[in-house]
Design goal:
The complex is a heterodimer of chains A (585) and B (202). By secondary structure, chain A is an alpha/beta fold. Chain A is 38% helix and 16% strand. Chain A folds into three domains: 194 residues, Rossmann fold (3-Layer(aba) Sandwich), CATH 3.40.50.970; 154 residues, TPP-binding domain (Rossmann fold), CATH 3.40.50.1220; 190 residues, Thiamin diphosphate (ThDP)-binding fold, Pyr/PP domains (Rossmann fold), CATH 3.40.50. Chain A has 23 helices and 20 strands. A six-stranded parallel β-sheet of chain A has the order 3-2-4-5-7-6, sandwiched between helices. In chain A, helix 20 links the parallel strand 17 and strand 18. In chain A, helix 4 packs parallel to helix 6, helix 4 packs across helix 19 and helix 10 packs across helix 15. Chain A is globular, with a radius of gyration of 25 Å. Chain A starts with a helix and ends in a 23-residue tail after the last strand. Chain B is α+β, with helices and mostly antiparallel strands and 202 residues long. Chain B has a domain of 68 residues: Alpha-Beta Plaits. In chain B, strands 5, 6, 7, 8 and 9 form a five-stranded antiparallel β-sheet that branches. A four-stranded antiparallel β-sheet of chain B has the order 2-3-1-4. Chain B is elongated and about 65 Å long. The two termini of chain B are 14 Å apart. Classes of the chains: A alpha/beta (585), B alpha+beta (202). At the A-B interface, strand 6 of A face helix 2 and helix 3 of B. Chain A: Belongs to the TPP enzyme family. Chain A: Its cofactor is Mg(2+); thiamine diphosphate. Chain A: This is Acetolactate synthase. Chain A: It catalyses: 2 pyruvate + H(+) = (2S)-2-acetolactate + CO2.
Chain lengths: 585, 202
């Protein structure tokens, strides 16, 4: 390596005592990359620029060890890193330059914070002596990103780099994960320093990522569950982030409790599992919403009672005793008052709880869910998945896709109607199969996130499902697909509207369709310009065969599917209504 | 904000022990500003322990909101511990400085008596002006402004509030706990969960 020669010259002169660890002289830029390697990083999503040139220069010598994916826009870079992190469970890494490069990360950071995605973003910054002078491409990215990062730090001296990055990775991945931004001034990247061997961070005295479980709360929770006649489990992404899918399944199967999921929790328990009763929230399933207000004990596991899940809070599960399992103490009692707070890592708390709960089946209670599901099938689902209308529905596309992938694909969705349809109907056999922007609702998320998801799980098929609005927000990332040859299947569900807003305007604003009529380019031609094969489907007769063609195609493929213009997503809990007031039509 | 909530609002003293880190003040301040809550008083200074700073923050809020804010502050990486207390649970003081023309005090005996009655102490005496200092509650320091105003008060400044928690055992033992690499076998400490009844009712 480049720096070995330098260190070979300087080391003997140190004449240090034998116990002192060997130091190595290198630039801050090289130390940055060495830190990434020590943290097990293999993929970086980034875009170079003036203030990060020294790091990119060092990267030139690390091409064999670090796969740098050149994106087309920094927002695409950070969403790709999110997709990578969500599909693989590893920390996503992003490089961007100062100023506009850094500010383009803002949406992704906010998205990653609210969806608890572990990221380490490294931004270049102007020379330390220029800070505060309005230098070229200077932006105060630390202050801009303070509310949207779990932690951030500005490095102005090469010496700080290993410790800052060690803390960054530790903070990003531990406890409730989240995004971290490290801003490195150009002088710190260039500066040479005698670095001691890299030491990963395992402790920060002011930070306690994992609380110690209190046995009395486990006992109280188990007692409540054992007395319950109508217990109901709500699970969220915490089960996936805690890698506690097996522990969760064991708990559910022993206690026999019906379980419903938030959209970020989807897939932690397979779609077909008999105790999986469906999706929660505004466009969730009928039974899980209605019966939330009839259960006697509500057990929330790794979820945060988002307003899209709870609807009107003062009419939410008021009859129920609430047990809340969460690693983040700020979530407990934040929106819903709990009877028993089980503060801890659910990988640890679930087995403790499973040991104390009695094996039950709750057949009558399950029957209630089944009856509600039958009503929903009659009112909504059958027509959505097997339509009798001439126009294609989004649901039938997902249904056909399920039949072909058999639930083995990673489904990446954007935001809007297609997202709700995909989350409701996609069959998911495995965990980490549903990647979507849940908390922030970021249109433009899916295309870059799918690219990242494929890099994170290269052995699994990755299908991006995107609306005609969202795809136009980050369509430039087709260039990233072109250049890297990454195999991503892209389905555009084109209803020629910004469908979700149009649905609200139809239902709540008297059909005043204000600026939701959006035109699209010829996506197949656009794709072909990027060297990506594609096809447009306008008739049901071609649908299945086209999906098959897409999935079998070697490499990326774009499938534009023309669906009904004015379909609405039902069921729906209108904003300001209780979950029990969910509408089937 | 419901009527009940505005009735339940009162002054709370938030005490936070933190690392001494650039940018942390902003990280804490935005927890209030994002909810459009005004900070009435803010004091940040080194604590009795080297390297650890103590924030004293005063806000007017309901206990429900203060509890959530305290937890969100404590969640920040570089914050060690957060407490919140009503005024009844703390001993608090503010310091005030008053600049008045020296000739007025020299000539008017009543002013000297008023100053003495209000516990004021001369910090600097110059030919043209004198600076007095008092400490006390807001009403007390306010009162002296009113007293001195007719006698040509030139300038006034008041410090942020500092508060000592009546029930606190101090932070030294707690810090040792934080510095331990291995988690303690004692039940996890989270004051909010310990005193749940007082924390939150929907």
């Amino acid at each position: 390596m480049l720096t070995n020669e330098q260190s070979a010259q300087t080391l003997p002169e140190l004449a240090a005592p034998a116990v002192q660890p060997e130091t190595e002289t290198m630039t801050g830029a090289v130390a940055t990359l060495q830190a990434l390697l020590a943290e097990g990083v293999d993929t970086i999503f980034g875009y170079p620029g003036g203030a990060i040139i020294p790091i990119y220069d060092a990267l030139y010598d690390f091409k064999e060890q670090l796969n740098h994916v050149l994106v087309r826009h920094e927002q695409g870079g950070i969403h790709a890193a999110q997709g990578y992190a969500r599909s693989s469970g590893k920390v996503g890494v992003v490089f961007a330059t100062s100023g506009p490069g850094a500010t383009n990360l803002v949406t992704g950071l906010a998205d990653a914070l609210i969806d608890s995605t572990p990221l380490v973003c490294i931004t270049g910054q102007v020379f330390a002596h220029l800070l505060g002078t309005d230098a070229f491409q200077e932006t105060d990215i630390i202050n801009i990103t303070t509310p949207i990062t779990k932690w951030n730090y500005q490095v102005t001296n090469a010496e700080e780099i290993p410790e800052a990055l060690a803390k960054a990775f530790y903070i990003a991945r531990s406890g409730r994960p989240g995004p971290v931004l490290i801003d490195i001034t150009k002088n710190a990247q260039q500066q040479k320093h005698d670095f001691a061997p890299y030491v990963p961070c395992t402790h920060i005295r002011s930070y306690r990522p994992v609380p110690i479980v209190r046995p009395e709360y486990i006992r109280e929770a188990a007692a409540l569950i054992n007395q319950a006649k109508r217990p109901f489990v709500l699970w969220g992404q915490g089960v996936i982030l805690g890698k506690a899918e097996q522990e969760f399944k064991a708990f559910i199967e022993k206690s026999g409790i019906p379980a419903a999921w938030t959209i970020l929790g989807a897939g932690a328990l397979p779609t077909d599992h008999p105790l999986n009763v469906g999706m929660l929230g505004m466009h969730g399933n009928y039974g899980p919403n209605v019966l939330t207000n009839e259960c006697d004990v509500l057990i929330a596991i790794g979820m945060r009672f988002d307003d899209r899940v709870t609807g009107r809070l003062d009419k939410y599960a008021k009859q129920a005793k609430v047990i809340h399992l969460d690693i983040d103490p700020t979530e407990i009692d934040k929106n819903v008052a709990t009877t028993v707070p089980v503060w801890g890592d659910c990988k640890e708390t679930l087995p403790l709880l499973t040991a104390l709960v009695e094996a039950k089946l709750h057949p009558e209670w399950h029957e209630r869910f089944r009856v509600h599901m039958e009503q929903e099938v009659d009112a909504v689902i059958r027509e959505e998945l097997f339509p009798t209308s001439e126009e294609m529905t989004m649901g039938e596309v997902i249904q056909q896709l399920n039949e072909l992938t058999e639930g083995e694909a990673v489904i990446v969705t954007d935001v809007g109607q297609h997202q709700m349809v995909a989350c409701r109907y996609a069959k998911l056999n495995k965990t980490r199969s549903n990647i979507t922007s849940g908390g922030l609702g970021t249109m433009g998320f899916a295309l870059p996130a799918a690219i990242g998801a494929k890099f994170g799980t290269p052995h699994r098929p990755v299908v991006a499902i995107i609306g005609d609005g969202g795809v136009q927000m980050t369509i430039q990332e087709l260039g990233t697909i072109m250049q890297t040859g990454v195999d991503v299947k892209i389905i555009i569900l084109n209803n020629r509207f910004l469908g979700m807003v149009r649905q609200w305007q139809e239902l709540f604003n008297d059909r005043r369709y204000s600026f939701v009529d959006i035109q699209s380019p010829d996506y197949v031609t656009v794709a072909s310009g990027y060297g990506i094969s594609g096809k447009r489907v306008e008739a049901r007769a071609e649908l299945k065969q086209s999906l098959h063609q897409m999935l079998e195609h070697p490499g990326s493929f774009l499938l534009e599917i023309m669906v009904s213009k004015e379909n609405n997503i039902f069921p729906m809990v209108p904003q300001g209504c209780s979950v029990a007031e969910i509408r089937l039509r | 904000m419901s009527q009940q909530a505005s009735i339940d609002r009162q002054e709370y003293n938030i005490t936070a022990y933190t690392e001494n880190q650039v940018g942390l003040l902003n990280r804490i301040a935005i927890i209030f500003s994002r909810r459009k809550i005004n900070i009435e008083s803010l004091n940040v200074s080194p604590s009795e322990i080297e390297g650890i700073h103590r924030f004293n923050i005063v806000i007017n809020e309901t206990e429900e909101v203060v509890g959530k804010l305290a937890r969100q502050i404590e969640k920040q990486i570089e914050v060690l511990k957060v407490y919140y207390n009503t005024n009844a649970d703390v001993i608090w003081q503010e310091m005030a400085l008053y600049k008045v023309p020296t000739d007025v005090i020299a000539e008017k005996a009543i002013v000297e008596r008023l100053l003495r009655e209000n516990g004021a102490r001369a910090v600097v005496i110059r030919k043209d002006y004198t600076v007095f200092e008092t400490t006390g509650h807001r009403e007390e320091t306010d009162n002296l402004i009113r007293v001195l105003q007719p006698y040509g008060l030139i300038e006034f400044v008041r410090s942020a509030r500092i508060a000592i928690i009546k029930a606190s055992d101090g932070f030294n033992s707690k810090l040792r706990e934080f510095e331990r690499r291995e988690p303690s076998t004692e039940p996890a400490e989270n004051e909010y969960l310990n005193s749940r009844d007082k924390v939150f009712t929907m």
